[in-house]
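User: I'm putting together a teaching handout on how sequence relates to shape, and I'd like one worked example. Could you take Signal peptidase I from Phreatobacter stygius, show the sequence you're using, and then write out its predicted structure as tokens right after it?

Assistant: Happy to. First the sequence, then the structure tokens directly below it.
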Amino acid sequence: MSKIRDLANTIIGALAIVVVLRSFAFATYHIPSESMVPTLEVGDRVAAVKFPYGYSRFSLVGGDYLPRFPGETGRIPAAMPARGNVAVFRHPVSGEDFIKRVVGLPGDRVAIREGRVWLNGAAVPLAESGHWTYRDPSGAIVAVTAYRETLPGAEPHTILLRDRRSPMSDMAEAIVPEGRLFMLGDNRDNSSDSRFSSMGFVPVENLIGRADAILYSFASCAGEAGLRCAPRRMLERVE
């Protein structure tokens, strides 16, 4: 009986450590779609650190069933992300975990004209940087133009645009409400994000963590009978 008790205590202790780490330190997430290409590719496993944004009930394992934390943002402490951060958050409609780039902060005026983001009346710098190809869910190869976008106060990052005159490339100016964020995918023609009513502005409370590293990837695969996959990159900082 003592051996069984010791084994049970070891298992319970290990589970408790995992829950604490996943709630307060970091958690890992799998990238299932092309919405953040080229920053993140399908098959990437990213680590999202929790402490930079403080903690809300969505930060904690099983926290969906907890009451909202006190304060205007529902976070302790009430930390705010920076423009350009790649963040994991709880989708305000579907309740799924999503990952997008923070583009607009509370009070910002955001518009999109021919694929270019405008913030507070000024165009965000956008410079063509070549071409990119990727495989869409149907297996077809998609060719798009790559651009370097530089949000205020952030390092440049690469986005993809297939057609700067498509309906997805324009959005009337809107003001980001208090306690909300405007989120965009880097693959602008293939991302469900804050441009659409299916997501809308994301509550700051719904932030889970900042995506800081790609732990490994199975995006590059080859083989016939079985896929043989190798990591694409290890512990690369996500700007």
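A couple of points you could highlight for students: The two ends are 52 Å apart (CA to CA). The chain has one domain: 2-237.
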